[in-house]
């Protein structure tokens, strides 16, 4: 009886011991599997940091403006009698463009001219007669005053007649005609726009801190959405004499050649001004920079071997980006491997696997062709 109890207790001990050992082994394997899953290698794309020429620039947005530009109108009302221009035509300064019916005004001018001619004849006759004391000096003085008054009335009426004719105030290109023959025009009605297109201005604003970096005749480069991939060059010709007290910005004007009249007033323009001399700095693609509340950082790859390594977080100091690239002044040395894609899933010490099969080219001036 005792022997049977002993065998039974021993069997139960072996059974429970096996169950305990199996459970312990299972827990150990689960912890190991979870530990392996907690920090698996992350696939990233990288580039090798290298020195490259870097030109510091000031960037701004501006608007194109004609050197001379106006919406032409007449200061008197009337009916359109003649139109001497075509839409989009280039005209010279002083060229007649449009005339209003001026029959009554011309008739009145002719009447006043006849009166002035009559006063001139009377004055000439009295000047001959005064030599023989046939007329008094008072009569002669009255004749002179009458002639001057008549001539003044003639000049006044000539001005009225001239107001019925629109002339180009300067040379340029006309816009689209906005009136028709026989139409009644009120004073001040816009007839057509006239713009002088060569040269052309670009007006833009810079922060007051930039005043030390700009000067008259300094080169500027602009690009416009209408001609993607092209750049137009000019020079700074004016800097405003005051800084806006609200924005603390200063207005700057540059002048550009526009012989082909491709740039038009009112266009939006992106402006760049090169400051200082080109220098050699470490550059990386803009996608390498990770922004957070503590500052800009990048991930470097250490111990890279057979396409695998360890990610290391590094805070950096940068300059303003140019195109797809950015200059790093502190934190990255030439030859270090920098992560440019896949950083969101990394932390300091994460194992990484490098895959550069789909890395796009990062250019400092993408799709830009100098003109």
Oligomer: single chain
- Poorly predicted runs are 367-371
What is the terminal separation in angstroms?
Answer: 110 Å
Q: What is the strand content?
A: 35-45%
Structural class: alpha+beta
The proportion of residues forming helix, as a percent range, comes to: 10-25%
Number of helices: 3
Radius of gyration: 43 Å
Shape: rod-shaped
Number of strands: 23
Organism: Bradyrhizobium guangdongense
GO molecular function, one term: efflux transmembrane transporter activity
Family: Belongs to the membrane fusion protein (MFP) (TC 8.A.1) family.
InterPro entries: Beta-barrel_RND_2 (IPR058792), RND_pump_MFP (IPR006143)
How would you describe the overall organization of this protein?
By secondary structure, the chain is an alpha+beta fold. Helix content is 24%, strand content 41%. It has three helices and 23 strands. The chain has a six-stranded mixed β-sheet, with no helix packed on it. Strands 3-10-13-12-11-14 form a six-stranded antiparallel beta barrel. It has a four-stranded antiparallel β-sheet with strand order 2-15-20-19, with no helix packed on it. The chain starts with a helix and ends with a strand. The C terminus is likely disordered.
